[in-house]
C-alpha cells in the first residue's frame, strides 16, 4: 500500500506534527510497514509449514505429527505474547523489544532455510520467541502515537494498522507459498527471512517518528528482581538441558518429549492464570463477578480457535492430499488457500462495521453475547461443511476447491463476529489490577485451543476423519447454543458491561 503523507496542522513537536499517514501520526506508517512485513514472514512460513512437514521432499512426517507440530508452534506464539509484553514493560521498553524481536524472527527463518532437519525445530522456536516478543509491544506503540484513549483518531489508527496485518497475510502465501511449493521449500523460508529483514530495516529507519514513550521502560526491574529472575531462568534452563541431555544419551529421546510438555503447558498455563486472577482477594465483588462471566467467553473462545486454526493444518493437509486444487482448469499451490481468510477480512470488515452502526442507530444491534454465540455456531457450521469434501474424498474422488473456500468463508464470518467482540469485552471486563495483562489473557484462549488440537494429534486422533470432524463441529455449536441459553446469567455477571 502506498503511504499517503500530507501536511498537517498539528502543533509542532508532537508525533507526526509535520506530515501524516492517512491523517494519522507519521509513526503509524513505520509501525504499519513493520507489522505488514512481519506478518508477511509469519503467514508465509505458516502456510508452508504443514505442507513441508508431510512432503516427501520435506520431513515426510505423518499428518498427525505435522498437525501436532503446527498446533504447538501456533500455541507457543500466543503463549509467549505474555512474557513478551513483560519484557517490554519491565526490561527493554516496547521499541527495543520490537527491534530485538525482529532480529530473532529473521534469524529463525534463516535457520529454517538451512537444508537440515536438525536445525528446523530450532528455527521454529526462534520464530515463536520473536513473534511473542513483537506481538504485544508493537500494538502498545500504536497506542503511544495518540493523546490518550479519547483521541478521536485512535480507533481509526488501529484499523489502519490491522489492515497492514491482513495485507501481509494475504500476499505471503501467494509469494512465499508459490516459491516454497514450486521451486524449493528452503528458498520459501529464506523469503520469509527477507520479509522480516525488510520490516526490521523499515522499523529502524522510521523509529524517529515514534513517540518518545515507546523507548521508556514503564516499570523497570529493581536490582533484586533482576537477580531473582536470572536465577530462576538459569535454574529452569539448567534442568531442561540436563533432562534432555540425559534423554539423548540414553537413547530414549523422541519428538514427543518436546511436544507433550509444550502442549500440556499450553492447556495448564491458561487455566492457572485464570484461577490466579479469579482467586485474587484484592478484587472487589463487581470485578469477581465480571471475571466469572469472562471465563464463559474464554472457554468458548478456546473452542472457537481450536477449530478455526485447523484451517492452516487439518484443512491444508486435506487439500494437499484430497482436493482438486484448480479453478476452471487452472491449478494453484495448496498454500494459496491461506490467502482466502485475509482477503475476506479486508472485504467484509468494513461491511460488518457499517451494519453494526446501522443497527445501533435503530436500537437493534445484537448484544455481545449474541455475536459471540453466533461466531461459535458458524465455526461449527464450517466443520459440518467440511464433512462434504471428506465424504467425496472417502469415495475415491477429489473434492472441489470451492468446498474449501466455502469453509474458509464461513469461518471468516464467524471470526468477524467473535474476535473483535472478544477483544472489546476483554478490555471492558478487565479488573483494574490486571488492566495491562488481560489482552495477554485473551491470547491464551488461542493457546488453549491450539494446544488441545496438539494433544489430540499426539494421542493419535485423526483429525481428518468424518467422526472427529462431526464431533468438533457439534462441540462448537453446542457451546454457542449454551452461551446463548445462559445469556441472562452471563449478563447478570457482567454487571454494567454491555
Can you describe what's shown?
The protein has 498 residues and is mainly alpha-helical. It has two domains: 21-216, Growth Hormone, Chain: A (Up-down Bundle); 268-498, MFS general substrate transporter like domains (Growth Hormone, Chain: A). It has 17 helices and seven strands. The chain has helices at residues 27-54, 63-79, 81-90, 94-113, 117-144, 154-182, 185-206, 223-250, 256-278, 285-308, 314-322, 340-361, 368-394, 401-429, 438-458, 466-485, 487-494, and strands at 5-7, 19-21, 24-25, 323-324, 326-327, 330-331, 399-400. The strands form three sheets. A three-stranded antiparallel beta sheet has the order 1-2-3, covered by helices on one side. It has a two-stranded parallel ribbon with strand order 4-7. A two-stranded antiparallel sheet has the order 5-6. β2 (19-21) and β3 (24-25) form a beta hairpin. The radius of gyration is 23 Å and the shape is globular. Mean pLDDT is 89; it is low at 1-17.
Secondary-structure content class: mainly alpha
CATH fold assignment of the largest domain: Growth Hormone, Chain: A
| Termini gap | 36 Å
Output the radius of gyration.
23 Å
Defining key terms:
single chain, 498 residues, mainly alpha, Growth Hormone, Chain: A, three-stranded antiparallel β-sheet, two-stranded parallel ribbon, 17 helices, 73% helix, 3% strand, disordered N terminus, cell membrane, transmembrane, transport, dipeptide transmembrane transporter activity, peptide:proton symporter activity
Amino acid at each position: 500500500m502506498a503511504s499517503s503523507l500530507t501536511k498537517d496542522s498539528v502543533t509542532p513537536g508532537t508525533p507526526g506534527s509535520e506530515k501524516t499517514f492517512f491523517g494519522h501520526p507519521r509513526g503509524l506508517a513505520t509501525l504499519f510497514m513493520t507489522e505488514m512485513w512481519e506478518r508477511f514472514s509469519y503467514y508465509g512460513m505458516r502456510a508452508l509449514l504443514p505442507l513441508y512437514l508431510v512432503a516427501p521432499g520435506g520431513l515426510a512426517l505423518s499428518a498427525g505429527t505435522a498437525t501436532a507440530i503446527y498446533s504447538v508452534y501456533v500455541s507457543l506464539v500466543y503463549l509467549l505474547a505474555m512474557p513478551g509484553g513483560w519484557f517490554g514493560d519491565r526490561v527493554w521498553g516496547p521499541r527495543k523489544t520490537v527491534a530485538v524481536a525482529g532480529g530473532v524472527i529473521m534469524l529463525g527463518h534463516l535457520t529454517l532455510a538451512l537444508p537440515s532437519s536438525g536445525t528446523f525445530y530450532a528455527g521454529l522456536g526462534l520464530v515463536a520467541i520473536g513473534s511473542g516478543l513483537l506481538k504485544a509491544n508493537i500494538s502498545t506503540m500504536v497506542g503511544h502515537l495518540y493523546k490518550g484513549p479519547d483521541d478521536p483518531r485512535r480507533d481509526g489508527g488501529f484499523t489502519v494498522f490491522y489492515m497492514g496485518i491482513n495485507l501481509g497475510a494475504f500476499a505471503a502465501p501467494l509469494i512465499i507459498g508459490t516459491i516454497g511449493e514450486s521451486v524449493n521449500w528452503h528458498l520459501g523460508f529464506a523469503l520469509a527471512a527477507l520479509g522480516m529483514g525488510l520490516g526490521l530495516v523499515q522499523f529502524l529507519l522510521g523509529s524517529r517518528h515514534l513517540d518518545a514513550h515507546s523507548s521508556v521502560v514503564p516499570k523497570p526491574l529493581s536490582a533484586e528482581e533482576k537477580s531473582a529472575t536470572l536465577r530462576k531462568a538459569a535454574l529452569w534452563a539448567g534442568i531442561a538441558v540436563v533432562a534432555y541431555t540425559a534423554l539423548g544419551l540414553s537413547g530414549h529421546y523422541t519428538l514427543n518429549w518436546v511436544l507433550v510438555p509444550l502442549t500440556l503447558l499450553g492447556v495448564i498455563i491458561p487455566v492457572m492464570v485464570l484461577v490466579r486472577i479469579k482467586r485474587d482477594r484484592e478484587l472487589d465483588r463487581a470485578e469477581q463477578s465480571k471475571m466469572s462471566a469472562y471465563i464463559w467467553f474464554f472457554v468458548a473462545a478456546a473452542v472457537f480457535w481450536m477449530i478455526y486454526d485447523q484451517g492452516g493444518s487439518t484443512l491444508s493437509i486435506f487439500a494437499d492430499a484430497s482436493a482438486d486444487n484448480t479453478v476452471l482448469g487452472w491449478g494453484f499451490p495448496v498454500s494459496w488457500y491461506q490467502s482466502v481468510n485475509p482477503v475476506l477480512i479486508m472485504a467484509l470488515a468494513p461491511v460488518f462495521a457499517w451494519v453494526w452502526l446501522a443497527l445501533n442507530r435503530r436500537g437493534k444491534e445484537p448484544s455481545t453475547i449474541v455475536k459471540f454465540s453466533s461466531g461459535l455456531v458458524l465455526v461449527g457450521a464450517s466443520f459440518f461443511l467440511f464433512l462434504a469434501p471428506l465424504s467425496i474424498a472417502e469415495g475415491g474422488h477429489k473434492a472441489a476447491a470451492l468446498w474449501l473456500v466455502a469453509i474458509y468463508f464461513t469461518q471468516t464470518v464467524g471470526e468477524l463476529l467473535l474476535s473483535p467482540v472478544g477483544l472489546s469485552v476483554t478490555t471492558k471486563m478487565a479488573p483494574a489490577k490486571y488492566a495491562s495483562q488481560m489482552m495477554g489473557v485473551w491470547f491464551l484462549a488461542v493457546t488453549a485451543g491450539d494446544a488441545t488440537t496438539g494433544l489430540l494429534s499426539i494421542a493419535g486422533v485423526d483429525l481428518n476423519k468424518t467422526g472427529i470432524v462431526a464431533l468438533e463441529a457439534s462441540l462448537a455449536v453446542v457451546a454457542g447454543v449454551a452461551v446463548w441459553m445462559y445469556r441472562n446469567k452471563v449478563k447478570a455477571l457482567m454487571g454494567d458491561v454491555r
